[in-house]
Write a structure and sequence with these properties.
Blueprint: E1 8-11, H1 17-28, E2 32-37, H2 41-53, E3 57-62, H3 68-82, E4 87-90, H4 105-127, E5 135-139, H5 143-146, H6 152-172, E6 178-184, H7 190-194, H8 201-208, H9 218-229, E7 240-243
Parallel strand pairs: 1-2, 1-4, 2-3, 4-5, 5-6, 6-7
């Protein structure tokens, strides 16, 4: 029997990259999946099409997690469509790197609004629907551990994700809701390609510092998300898992 048969899931920022891979992996294990997107309808529709072609159940839901109305609408549509919610993957995120001399209020607010406030608002909206055995997976980043230069704001957002994960694990644990952080290292996605990371000196350095000798692929992260969503991880909460091939 599939690990997530009968479960329902919402993955934010799931139109591409790690979010898309997680949505497809959850569906492959039997979950009905809401594929959230902010602007890329075509991307979300493509993820849904791939899931349904493989016999899975999914639909695309538009909404901006960085405002309360958007977060509430995303969750409401998911619950209306599937009749409940068991798994929330807070994957929506943005990143911009800048030296301290170039940090602006807009640079700060853009990243904190999506990466931190968005996570809080979506979890707030979802929590009233989650019950015993539910799983919240917050996508953090290895940057919270390696703190690279020119990443002060982005690193701060992902460090906040870790702190929030611990606090929510304690707050929601009595209700049987697990909360864990999944922190990828460098992963090859549309985003890291467009940012110029893939094929760069940074890419080569990251691979050379990784014991397993390569950077990550979205499927590497997705399989761990499936584990955290499943009953196999039923005794894990408040944990921060670094999925980086051993790079620290």
């Amino acid at each position: 029997m599939s690990k997530l048969q009968g479960k329902t899931a919402l993955v934010t920022g799931a139109s591409k990259g790690i979010g898309a891979a997680i949505a497809k992996a959850l569906a492959a294990e039997g979950a009905a999946v809401a594929v959230n997107y902010a602007s890329s309808k075509a991307g979300a529709d493509a993820v849904v099409a791939e899931i349904t072609a493989a016999g899975g159940k999914a639909f695309a839901v538009q909404g901006d997690v960085a405002n309360a109305a958007g977060a509430q609408a995303i969750v409401a549509q998911t619950v209306e469509r599937f009749g409940g919610l068991d798994i929330l993957v807070n994957n929506s995120g943005v990143y911009e790197f800048a030296p301290i001399e170039e940090v602006t209020e807009a640079h700060y607010r853009k990243q904190f609004d999506v990466n931190v406030l968005g996570l809080l608002l979506t979890t707030q909206a979802a929590a009233k629907h989650l019950g015993q055995g539910a799983s919240i997976i917050n996508i953090g980043s290895l940057v919270s551990r390696i703190t690279p230069p020119a990443s002060a704001v982005y690193t701060a957002t992902k460090s906040a994700v870790e702190g929030i994960t611990g606090a929510l694990a304690r707050e929601l644990g009595p209700r049987g809701i697990r909360v864990n952080a999944l922190n990828p290292g460098l992963v090859e996605t549309e985003g890291t390609h467009s940012a110029g990371f893939i094929g760069s000196d940074f890419h080569n350095h990251a691979a050379s510092q990784t014991p397993l000798g390569r950077i990550g692929q979205p499927r590497d992260i997705a399989s761990i998300a499936v584990f955290l969503a499943s009953d196999d991880a039923g005794w894990l909460t408040g944990e921060k898992l670094y999925a980086s091939g051993g790079m620290h």
